[in-house]
């Protein structure tokens, strides 16, 4: 029996939820769902109401908010549980910091380190 597009998207969402800290790539998720990159993005947005990146970001923020509510959790521990880890073993957060005269966005990478 072949799976429908919504069931394949649901399966991908379950995988994302199971490991939010993984460095998910849309192309890999599309391949896993058995769809082309562009078709997967359209189907994902239709199913979830968000882009793939937006969905992952919102789920990570939701998880971080839940963990922050727990007074026993340290911010470093929450970061390690909700953000992808770099080769050096530390999460890197990329945030926009402005635009140049051509409209190109400048970003800054912040690395989280243990204290």
Automatic annotation (TrEMBL):
Residues 10-81 form the HTH araC/xylS-type domain. Pfam families: HTH_18. Transmembrane segments: none annotated. It comes from the Bacteria. Keywords: DNA-binding, Transcription, Transcription regulation. GO terms for molecular function: DNA-binding transcription factor activity; sequence-specific DNA binding. Signal peptide: none annotated. The keyword Transferase does not apply. This is HTH araC/xylS-type domain-containing protein.
């Amino acid at each position: 029996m072949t799976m429908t597009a919504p069931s394949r998207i649901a399966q991908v969402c379950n995988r994302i939820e199971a490991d939010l800290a993984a460095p998910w790539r849309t192309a890999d998720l599309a391949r896993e769902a058995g769809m082309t990159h562009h078709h997967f993005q359209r189907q994902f947005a239709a199913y979830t109401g968000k882009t793939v990146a937006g969905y992952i970001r919102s789920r990570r923020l939701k998880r971080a908010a839940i963990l922050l509510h727990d007074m026993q959790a340290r911010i470093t521990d929450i970061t390690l549980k909700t953000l992808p880890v770099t080769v050096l073993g530390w999460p890197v957060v990329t945030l926009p910091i402005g635009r140049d005269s051509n409209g190109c966005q400048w970003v800054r990478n912040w690395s989280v380190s243990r204290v």
